[in-house]
Amino acid sequence: MKFFIDTANVEEIRQANEWGLVDGVTTNPSLVAKESGQSPTDIYQAICREVTGPVSAEVIALNAKGMIDEARKLASIADNIVVKLPLTLEGLKATKALSSEGIKTNVTLCFSANQALLAAKAGATYVSPFVGRLDDIANSGMELVAHIQSIYQNYDFNTEIIVASVRSPMHVMDAAIIGADIATIPFKVLSTLVHHPLTDKGIEAFLNDWQKIDK
Ligand code: E4P
């Protein structure tokens, strides 16, 4: 499973990249808004300097023409920009047009299997089901991911599934167990994955025993 990092914070991306855990980056308008004092373009440029993998940058327009115009500008920032579009009819229309131009797309805010089917039919490079937001309303986010996987396998769609709205290490583990293509993970969750108290205890015991050796 590929790991994308779900942040617009360049420092977080740099650190996670040093750990070797960044295959790509996803941002959204809310994440970009947290990075005060920098323009969105500056942020995307800085991220694309850090990371060679796909970097998702989201459009704001609500109509297809506006989305396509924004998408072309975003795509000109760097070769690895992926344009993020909402799962609406206008978003699908823009996705179809952009995919025929060779611009990579990530269709976002996906909450149903039918929506994911439409994204794939429009030629989306990626689809992003939001597991955390579904879990929040007592629907199973991971069940949605499994349904999308079945549908994509049934029809040999190439659209890759990005498990998004990840909130916990359990989401990461569940995504990997069902074989999701990608999970996009917030820095806070990413940095907890390595920890296990028995690892810390084991290191401590080994170091203590090492001190007892007559060297
Ligand atoms: C990523 O593509 C999504 O925008 C992000 O994972 C949403 O996460 P949230 O539901 O925690 O805001």
Automatic annotation (TrEMBL):
<comment type="similarity">
    <text>Belongs to the transaldolase family. Type 3B subfamily.</text>
</comment>
<dbReference type="GO" id="GO:0042182">
    <property type="term" value="P:ketone catabolic process"/>
</dbReference>
<comment type="pathway">
    <text>Carbohydrate degradation; pentose phosphate pathway; D-glyceraldehyde 3-phosphate and beta-D-fructose 6-phosphate from D-ribose 5-phosphate and D-xylulose 5-phosphate (non-oxidative stage): step 2/3.</text>
</comment>
<keyword id="KW-0963">Cytoplasm</keyword>
<dbReference type="GO" id="GO:0016832">
    <property type="term" value="F:aldehyde-lyase activity"/>
</dbReference>
<keyword id="KW-0704">Schiff base</keyword>
<dbReference type="InterPro" id="IPR013785">
    <property type="entry name" value="Aldolase_TIM"/>
</dbReference>
<dbReference type="InterPro" id="IPR004731">
    <property type="entry name" value="Transaldolase_3B/F6P_aldolase"/>
</dbReference>
<dbReference type="GO" id="GO:0006098">
    <property type="term" value="P:pentose-phosphate shunt"/>
</dbReference>
<dbReference type="InterPro" id="IPR022999">
    <property type="entry name" value="Transaldolase_3B"/>
</dbReference>
<dbReference type="GO" id="GO:0005975">
    <property type="term" value="P:carbohydrate metabolic process"/>
</dbReference>
<dbReference type="InterPro" id="IPR001585">
    <property type="entry name" value="TAL/FSA"/>
</dbReference>
<dbReference type="GO" id="GO:0004801">
    <property type="term" value="F:transaldolase activity"/>
</dbReference>
<dbReference type="InterPro" id="IPR018225">
    <property type="entry name" value="Transaldolase_AS"/>
</dbReference>
<feature type="active site" description="Schiff-base intermediate with substrate">
    <location>
        <position position="84"/>
    </location>
</feature>
<dbReference type="InterPro" id="IPR033919">
    <property type="entry name" value="TSA/FSA_arc/bac"/>
</dbReference>
<keyword id="KW-0570">Pentose shunt</keyword>
<dbReference type="GO" id="GO:0005737">
    <property type="term" value="C:cytoplasm"/>
</dbReference>
<dbReference type="Pfam" id="PF00923">
    <property type="entry name" value="TAL_FSA"/>
</dbReference>
<protein>
    <recommendedName>
        <fullName>Probable transaldolase</fullName>
        <ecNumber>2.2.1.2</ecNumber>
    </recommendedName>
</protein>
<keyword id="KW-0808">Transferase</keyword>
<comment type="function">
    <text>Transaldolase is important for the balance of metabolites in the pentose-phosphate pathway.</text>
</comment>
